[in-house]
Write a structure and sequence with these properties.
This protein has 139 residues and is mainly alpha-helical. The chain has helices at residues 3-6, 12-18, 20-28, 31-40, 47-54, 59-71, 93-96, 98-112, 116-128; strands spanning 45-46, 75-80, 86-91.
Length: 139
């Protein structure tokens, strides 16, 4: 085994768990995470307001994503001692850094994926090729 091969995970699953880039791709590959962060970049939101803005997300899914984001330090949950109880979610400084990532994705999309033909081609390709391509090792 070459030294360069020892530094490369043998499959995609390992890449998602063993390298910072792989973990970032796995984390940011969750559409709901990106949409939650995108909306919280506008300011604090209550659970039902966030759910309403997101559309077709279940309460359970939203709750799970918010808990995960909170555990990872991207979101802070603030509970107010009021009647009725009020809870708001907002991004931490770490969470606000994801705004730069979203801005880069938006710039990329505007530059390379802005016309409807490109989007249709992507959708068609993805629907016919459901499996991710194998990662080819450098020889």
């Amino acid at each position: 085994m070459k030294a360069s091969e020892a530094n490369h995970p043998s499959n995609i699953q390992e890449a998602c768990t063993e390298t910072p880039l792989g973990r970032a791709i796995h984390f940011l590959g969750d559409t709901w995470v990106l949409l939650i962060v995108m909306n919280l970049l506008q300011g604090s939101m209550r659970f039902n307001a966030l759910r309403s803005v997101l559309g077709h997300i279940s309460s359970k899914t939203l709750s799970n994503r918010l808990k995960m984001l909170e555990e990872l330090g991207f979101v802070q949950r603030l509970a107010y001692l009021e009647i009725p109880p009020r809870v708001e979610y907002h991004l931490t400084a770490k969470g606000r850094e994801l705004g730069d990532v979203l801005a880069a994705l938006e710039e990329f999309g505007n530059k390379h994926l802005s016309n409807s033909t490109t989007i249709a081609e992507c959708d068609e390709y993805l629907s016919t090729n459901e499996k991710a391509p194998a990662v080819k090792q450098a020889e």
